[in-house]
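Listing S7. Sequence submitted for prediction.
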Amino acid sequence: MQAKELTLTNFRNYESAHLSFSDGINILYGDNAQGKTNILEAVYLFSMGKSNRAHRDGELILHGQPSADLSLTFADSIRESQADIRLFRSRRKQIAVNEIPVRKNSELVGRFRVVYFGPEYLGLVKEGPKARRKNMDIVISQLKPAYFSALSELKKIVESKNALLKMEHPNQAMLEIMNEKLIAVSTEIIACRSQYIQKIGSLAKEIQNEISMGKEDLSLTYQSSVGTADNLSREEIADTLRLRLSDAWQRELDLRESVIGPHREDIDYTINGKDAKAFASQGQQKTIVLVQKLAEVHLMKQETGELPVLLLDDIMSELDKKRQGFILSHIRDMQILITCTDVDGFSLDADARLFSIENGQITNC
């Protein structure tokens, strides 16, 4: 998987920009707040159909402009494609792939795959479960676009159920209908998450063992709504969910919110059998996240036969020399877009491409 050319008009701080990427390392460098991260955000937008930083499309449009246009030419081992996105302040975005309109994000997800790693991810182990769920969901969605649709459906169901629970006298029959809808979509999500954690956990264990020279055993455990879901069929998952929801009936009425389902799940990390949130050092926690991101890269290659595009947003400055060297040794033979303040310390290949960025202006070096 490779990004070939990116064109921006009125996106963030770019009135107009065009970049032709190398198939290997691409380094976007310059002082802080000049627009380096905006380039990675633009590329990411073509993988998920939405920003990894902004909640509303209007935030992505250059001040004073009514809309923004983005175009990305990308290729996999089979074909080259072009995707176009037009963002508006007050209405839904327009997306097209090879000039064919895409009606919803789920039709875009999975066509162009990326793994993003920025400083905000370094606290993933110790932060709340929402961040861990989001990271997991982004990877699975790119591997299974139907999963992305299931997540959208789950959100609607939970919002509707919560609105019902907040009523003074919730309708019991309607709640039962909502629970059955919740069970149907949750079963698929839990099954996909369970498979994912088993695969990513196995890869992460190997990489952690390598970086620690055999001293640390990393384990990822999926804390699902049905307990351990590894060996459960979809029918068993659905039956267990139904029992859990029945047991939680009064608690949900008292709390006036849905407390059972994939929206309340988590991932546990352990190092040598100890909870990494409580016992791992800050350095160990950073390493776990680094290892997980590398495992995501390897998993995408295993599942699709293609390496994703790796987006590294100012992450090298957050890692010591050992971890920098480790990550660079594991991402050879793939396309990488890196942002940094300078290029010192990088061992650049002949095909590496440098982009100097200053106040929304890009200069090829």
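Caption to Listing S7: primary sequence and predicted structure tokens for the chain studied. The chain has two domains: 1-113+306-365, 124-303. The radius of gyration is 22 Å.
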